[in-house]
Amino acid sequence: MVNYLLKKSYRLKDLKEIEFNDLWGDHGVFTTMWIFDKPSKILFFKEHINNLIKSSKTYSVFKKTLSISLRKRIKPKLNFDLKLVKLKRQKPEFKNLKYKEILKHLTKLDNSRTDIGLCSNNKIFETGTSNLLFVKNGKVFSPINKFYRGITYNFFRSKIKKIIKKDILVNSLKDFDEIILIGSGKGVASVKSINQIKWKRKNLKFYNILSRHYKSAISNCKIYR
Questions:
Q1: Which of 88, 109, 127, 205 would give a disulfide with 115, using CB separation of 3.0 to 4.6 Å?
Q2: CA gyration radius for the chain?
Q3: Domains of the chain
């Protein structure tokens, strides 16, 4: 289970605090931001807020409640594995609140060591928490569509020379040298193994490149005011 450091809900019309409601399963959108250091910094803060506003308008959100929760960020370990599940998010192009089925899986796992790969029709799209990049022979691949393009994903698009869009078939995963998770919740994480298909990481070359870009973004992040 998630251990929250803070849980607050507010009535939007006057920002009065009300009883906490985590809103999971409701009609709405959310974003995950990483708060670090003292004084506080928020990585990609402006991008998160702009995307949240845009998603709210596109998704026609007219809720009266804003909920905020804080929890400790879990650092992924290098012996990280992926568990494939037959599950697909509703309207995956938006980071919406229809997450209850995903959370049922995630609450059973040690999230520092494992995430779930969301698969449908023999294709893998994303994980329960992150976007996925696939590396083969020095080339980087990403699913074509039907997944949420997160803020961290967009950051790396500006750093990687070319990301090739293609359907990533489950039975083709064995051909990839690296599988990498990227997202606000985990930062950059390298998958070591997928036991269901006996896949194992072949190297950490591209993971190290992405980690350097990410650390640079952290170093250049301004203090939140």
A1: 127
A2: 18
A3: 4-71 (no CATH), 80-216 (3.20.10.10)
Under 8 Å CB-to-CB from 182, ≥6 apart: which residues?
130, 131, 132, 133, 150, 152, 153, 156, 188, 189, 210
Q: Is the pLDDT of residue 224 over 80?
A: no
DSSP secondary structure, 18-80, as one string: ES----TTSS-B-----EETTTTEETTHHHHHHHHHHHHHHTT---SEEEEEEEPPPPPPTTE
Instruction: Convert the pLDDT of each residue in 98-121 to its tens digit.
Output: 888 999 999 999 999 999 999 999
